[in-house]
Amino acid sequence: MLDAAFARPWFPALDTPWALFDNAGGSVVARPVIERVTGYLSRLGVQLGASYALSQEAGEAVDNGRRTAARLLGAQPDETVLGSSSTALVQRLANALAAQWHEGDEVVVTDLDHEANGTPWRRLAERGIVVRTWTVRPDTARLELEDLESLLNDRTRLVAFTHCSNVVGNVHDAAAVAARVRAAGALSCVDGVAYAPHRRVDVAALDCDFYFASLYKTFGPHLSAMFCRRNTWAQLRNQNHDFVGEDEFPYKLEPGSIPHELAAGLIGIGEYLEAVAAHDVGSNGAGEASTDPFTTAFAAIAAREAELAAPLLGFLAEQERVRVIGEPSADPTRRVATIAFAVDGVDASRIPPLLDARQVAVRYGDFYAPRAIAALGLEKRGGVIRASLLHYNSEDEVTRLIEGLDEALRIVV
């Protein structure tokens, strides 16, 4: 079984008195990633693509990093675009697609998504693209497929939606949505940023057209990755230099190339997940894993995080004036361990400072999803308080969080 005793030594930044529950904004970095980045900077500060040995070694390290990113998405390396952030990648994607679209074509966005999967598509209205909004249901904080139906027509070119809400942790049936969008003759762009640190991503099983994730929220360096289905490549106009060919994928969506040392560091994410898989198989006495190591690792991560989230959700459910936003249970098929709540009559900004003295780190606000906060009726209350857990948090840290919240609620209520 995966536990804190195994996981925490892999993350040097956890050697701190602070209990870190702001992981949805960025996880701490796994030790193998740090070692890979440091090793690259120490030995391989050379240009790629040359004939000499050091250049060849550096190129192979960068290529292996891309392979790891692709593996995290369940994609192939040549289908995987790397960039500094998910926001930057989606902006490039929107510009690349819109170059082939026409005035009056339509895109559908949601009011639940992080703005990374919203603003780039909404800005296409300046080019004559019609933007429609798939609205979240305030009572459940979920997107329902039946609410999408009236928004689809023969001018719909793309539907952008979230696999998992970064605000409230609800998991959506992305495969079902992608299938409906494809039946309508449109493309699907799935935000997997809040999903990928917690669950196995498999773009082939989802059968989506585009899928992106932030690797710095998945135990890695500050890079993001985006899957682009092969049959979409011809629709994507070059975003790189003019001399880069339209058939040069993924390079045509990577202007300025990528930070080589960070790409090389991605290998370390895979090394950590493989260690998690080996530990889980060994501790369960199950012998050889029946699936790939990443699948085994994320199954263990999901089970571990459900155990950590359950007592926190149970505590919040017992508080009369506290409202948990989204899925109330720790069911790993319905939510990840990103837990948001609001306190009746209390501005969200009042809670996190009361936990600082206990060295318990949580945050409040809209978390770059202001439309979601408005749709949930919380924009005038400072947004939500969010405690985002990862598998490397400990039971003791969760206890400290619950005790800190109990005290804080007694002060503000």
Largest β sheet strand count, sense and barrel closure? 7 strands, mixed
Count of individual beta strands: 13
Q: Segments where pLDDT lies below 50 for 5+ residues?
A: none
Q: Roughly how many Å apart are the termini?
A: 39 Å
- Strand neighbour order, sheet with most strands: 2-8-7-6-5-3-4
% residues in beta strands = 5-15%
Shape: globular
What is the alpha-carbon Rg in Å?
Answer: 22 Å
Helix content: 25-40%
Q: How many H/I helical runs?
A: 13
Q: How do the SSEs run, as a string of H and E?
A: HEHHEHEHEEHEHEEHHHEEHEEHEH
Secondary structure topology:
Elements: H1 4-7, E1 19-20, H2 31-43, H3 53-73, E2 80-83, H4 86-98, E3 106-110, H5 119-122, E4 130-134, E5 156-162, H6 174-183, E6 187-191, H7 203-206, E7 210-214, E8 224-228, H8 260-265, H9 267-284, H10 293-317, E9 322-325, E10 338-343, H11 351-356, E11 360-361, E12 363-365, H12 370-375, E13 384-388, H13 395-412
Parallel strand pairs: 1-11, 3-4, 3-5, 5-6, 6-7
Antiparallel strand pairs: 2-8, 7-8, 9-10, 10-13, 12-13
Helix pairs in contact: 2-9, 3-9, 9-10, 10-13
